[in-house]
Amino acid sequence: MAEPIESVSLRQLRALVAIGETASFTAAGERLGLSQPSVSHLIRRLEAEVGQPLVVRGREVSLTRDGQAMVDAARRAILAIDSSIQECREHSDLKQGKVMVAVGHVTAATLLPHILLEFRQRHPQLDLIVVDCMVQQIRTRLFSHEADVGLGAVMPDDDSRIMVEQLSDSGVALFVRTDHPLARHDEVDAKVLAELPCIQLNPEAPAWLNISRRLIAANIYPRVEQRVVLLSTAIGLILAGMGVAMLPQISRGQMPAGIKGIALRNPALEWPISIARLANYPLSPAAQAFVAVVRFVSQRLRREAAMP
């Protein structure tokens, strides 16, 4: 196998193509923004590298047979390279691009609509593909490159391949029907969870495992009677009178009339919202723009929640 010719430069190939199209060293230089001697030097170096003449010099400048073959191949390569460079520049300028986001179900139903609206207003030319999934599947989506960014209640762990940035802590509330005896309270002690039929949302999610550990440490064992995956299912069961549900505080905005959220105390329970990404894999400009929007929206919603 022949060794690759590493010293042939793109400038030399551009010069050869320009000569082939203009039949003139001078005109080729004008097209490339170079002097005629500079073009001649590039061609001489190219000919030295390939070991034969490529240009027929004289009153009329033309190409040898091999020179023409090289021009034909170089023209296609240069078009592909220029197209790729232009595409990269447009991505960097956010004129085009795509970001794939894996989102846990709860975050997809609550926080994501605010993010999508802001992202579309800022970057209407970018494509955003949402991969909604169970939050414990986000890491798999990142490893398989089905997603550039993960969003949801992703918990940090010992896997150095994943970088997790916590954005906010929504906390956990108890959601009940408005005709429930507890509905007259604005907050309740978490020990009531042991006395009520509870609906638990996606109990295998890492955030819920942390919540369970906190409750056990406080000697509280919720009376879980229904385990569901989707927020909409939990809402339907609450409305049907099947029980009360521990849900993230951010779910308040999704609750229909007839359901009230009550703060849980002793202990207060955390529901973190985080961005996850591969630690050693650079984000595309579109993905960086999405992460910036997520941070902005999270901060805005946190300020709005703190207002009296």
Automatic annotation (TrEMBL):
Keyword line: DNA-binding, Membrane, Transcription, Transcription regulation, Transmembrane, Transmembrane helix
Domain HTH lysR-type residues, every copy: 8-64
Transmembrane segments: 228-247
Record-linked InterPro entries: HTH-type_LysR_regulators, LysR_HTH_N, LysR_subst-bd, WH-like_DNA-bd_sf, WH_DNA-bd_sf
Source organism of the structure: Achromobacter denitrificans
Annotated PANTHER family: HTH-TYPE TRANSCRIPTIONAL REGULATOR YBHD, NITROGEN ASSIMILATION TRANSCRIPTIONAL ACTIVATOR-RELATED
A Pfam family assignment: HTH_1
Family, as annotated: Belongs to the LysR transcriptional regulatory family.
The protein, known as: LysR family transcriptional regulator
